[in-house]
Amino acid sequence: MSTLLLIVIFTAIGGILSVLTAGVFLLLPEQKRQNLLPHGISFAIGALLTGAFCGLIPHAFEEVAEGEMQMLSATILIGILFFFILEKLLVWRHCHSHACEAHGEDSHDHHAGHQHQQNDHGRRVAGMFIILGDSIHNFVDGVLIGAAFLTDPQLGMVTSLAVAAHEIPQEVGDFAILLHSGYSRGKALLYNVLASLTTVIGGVLAYFSLGDLRHILPYFLTLAASSFIYIAVADLIPSLHRKTDIKTSLEQIGFILAGVGLILLMQTIAHRFES
To answer: Among its keywords, does the record have Transmembrane (predicted)?
Structure first.
């Protein structure tokens, strides 16, 4: 199977199927969703961190000369700072609807009818931010998956699986914000599917633009690793600290280890498949 076809298939898996899975998830009763979502977040943490530390970073260091290792390590730090600044400035992944509404309320007069219109406008803006931010995020994910496949098909498969693992709980949150913003279920699903197509576009673009620039691929791998680390540590792990009882903590650890185990199993299977 050609590398380009693999990139298209696995970027679609990481993008479109995660949206559809999140859409099906929203059909479950509210209480069931509330019970399952934290487990998905815990699982995604394990998958992301394992993909970064046991997949992307080791492969990146294998591809460079010893003299470049310090620069490659610095790229991880720069990447984490970059994603922090980008999230701060553009609110590109998690524009919390209450925060957006609060901003809208503070900046307008307090007339009841006018305030209601501004709140509706604020929710629509929040929905537009989610769609735009998701498109940018998915495009970057596609580029990183494509770079991973150009380095090693096994690494590409593991990277796409880690992307899908964190995309599903994120897409559930995005769906919730779009529905709160006044979008129908059908439109919310359509816009999320369209945004997910940018993953495929990013992967294909990486194939054609990075194929002859293999010397910079290790830097894309470390950028992907910094993205995974940032998402896990800054976005996902803090949400697990909201509950500290023993039962919940053990469940969180169990699902994190399940995410770790799945990525390691995927690496083993992919390695045997290549052999």
So the answer is: yes
Q: Which amino acid is present at 94?
A: H
44: tokens are 């995604």
Contact by Cβ (8 Å): 38, 187: no
Burial 72-104 (b: 16+ CB within 10 A, else e): beebbeebbeebeebbeeebbbebebeebbeeb
How many CB atoms neighbour CB 215 within 10 A? 10
What tokens were used for 148?
A: 């991973």
Residue 56 carries which DSSP code?
Answer: I
Token duo for residue 243: 């509950």
Mean pLDDT by 10 residues, the chain (275 residues): 88 80 78 81 88 88 84 93 79 48 43 44 60 78 89 87 78 72 79 87 91 80 87 86 90 93 80 59
Q: What is the dihedral of CA 113, 114, 117, 118, to 10 degrees?
A: -140
Confidence (pTM): 0.69
Question: Per the structure block, which two tokens stand in for 171?
Answer: 């897409």
How far are the Cα atoms of 91, 142, 156, 169, 187 from residue 136, in angstroms, in the given order? 11, 10, 20, 18, 19
CA distance 7 to 13: 10
HSE on the CB side for 254, CA within 13 Å?
Answer: 8
Q: Beta strands of the chain (E only): which ranges?
A: none
In sequence order, what DSSP letters do the residues of 173-235 get, joined into one string? Answer: HHHHHHHHTT--HHHHHHHHHHHHHHHHHHHHHHHHHHTT-GGGHHHHHHHHHHHHHHIIIII
Residue 171 has, within 13 A of its CA and on its CB side, a CA count of: 31
